[in-house]
Amino acid sequence: MHGRLPHALLIHGRPGIGKLHLAQVLAQSLLCENRTQEGLACGACPACTWFASGNHPDFRLVQPESLLPAQEDAEVAEPVEEGKKKASRQIKIDQIRGLGDFLNVGSHRNGHRVVLIHPAESMNPGSANALLKSLEEPSPGVVFLLVSHQPSRLLATVRSRCHALALTLPPRELSLRWLQEQGSKATPATLAFAGDAPLEAAALPEEEAETRRRLFDLLSQPTSSALGLADFCQRLQPGAVVNWMLKWTYDLIALASRGRSRYNIDRENKLSLLVQNMPIVKLLRFYSTLSSLQAISEHPLNARLFFDDLFIAYKEIG
Ligand SMILES: [Zn+2]
After folding, report:
1. 57 and 148 share a domain?
2. pTM over 0.85, yes/no
3. How many structural domains are present in the chain?
């Protein structure tokens, strides 16, 4: 299998389904010096030991500063550390140029050299163009693994130089079994709320689930006021709340159009009652308001006003 591996692979699919993990497994198996018959890494040779400790001389992981250490879902729920200069969310051109020696000097171990870029869409145009040169004139033995949540945001010329591999969601039963094996307490409802993405479900902090449950209890009461809801949220991260509200509203829209709820499968009855008084046109308008709020939710000028506006708009639906 490795003999025929393309020199650039684009592994894409939604966040939280294990793309980065797959890329790392692939990288390790390319570098392993004692592969199993199935072509998997042995886990014991010097190459595997270096890889596991992040020191393999023929491996480079390129990702935005904001993602260190590697986290598949950091873009979904990234904690904002106050008072600290925010790490860049972009892969900068210097990071790609910095690969120069690595690409031009041969392998340290007479094998492959692997560059893992994650997520590839965080390359800015300069970085993407710098990478394009390497993709167009590949050095022998070098394999690029690009991981992307949103391949449509990549330069078309970069995309066309890669062999695309789409990763889809695993079946729900399989994900639940895997979560149990990992010792996760995720329930079918948690998995559904994570959009059926098992890594995302595993990463949902339990205290966050409790806060969300209380917010959704409030939302389920027709008598709750916009200001009461904003009060409840004022210490929460605006980005997280917008994300929850998008899923909540998505389900309301699904039920209003006689579908099923997708994210809040344990609240379908409550949502069905609420939606009786919510015209679908207004729901759609609110959904688009949420999408635009999402853009500023990282840095709202005033969190309290942000939540007031959000819930006043919500209460205007019905
Ligand atoms: Zn090995």
Report:
1. yes
2. no
3. 2
pLDDT at 1: 43
Ligand 1 centroid from CA 143, angstroms: 18
Pick from 111, 160, 116, 161: nearest CA to 135? 161
The pair of three-digit structure tokens given for residue 62, joined into one six-digit string: 């390129």
* Domain shared by 157 and 37, yes or no: yes
Rounded Cα distance, 57 and 76, in Å: 31
Ligand 1 centroid–CA 40 distance in Å is: 8
Given this model, what pLDDT does residue 257 score?
A: 84
pLDDT, average across residues 133-153: 93
Confidence of residue 69 (pLDDT cuts 50, 70, 90): low
CA 53 to centroid of ligand 1, rounded, Å = 13
Which domain CATH number covers 88?
3.40.50.300
Question: What is the span of the domain harbouring residue 151?
Answer: 2-166
292 found inside a domain:
yes
Q: Are strands 163-166 and 8-12 parallel, antiparallel or unpaired?
A: parallel
Q: What is the pLDDT of residue 6?
A: 81
What's the 142 CA to ligand 1 centre distance in angstroms? Answer: 18
User: How far is the centre of ligand 1, averaged over its atoms, from the C-alpha of 21 (Å)?
Assistant: 17
Distance 263 CA to ligand 1 centre (A): 40
25 half-sphere exposure, CB direction, 13 A CA radius: 9
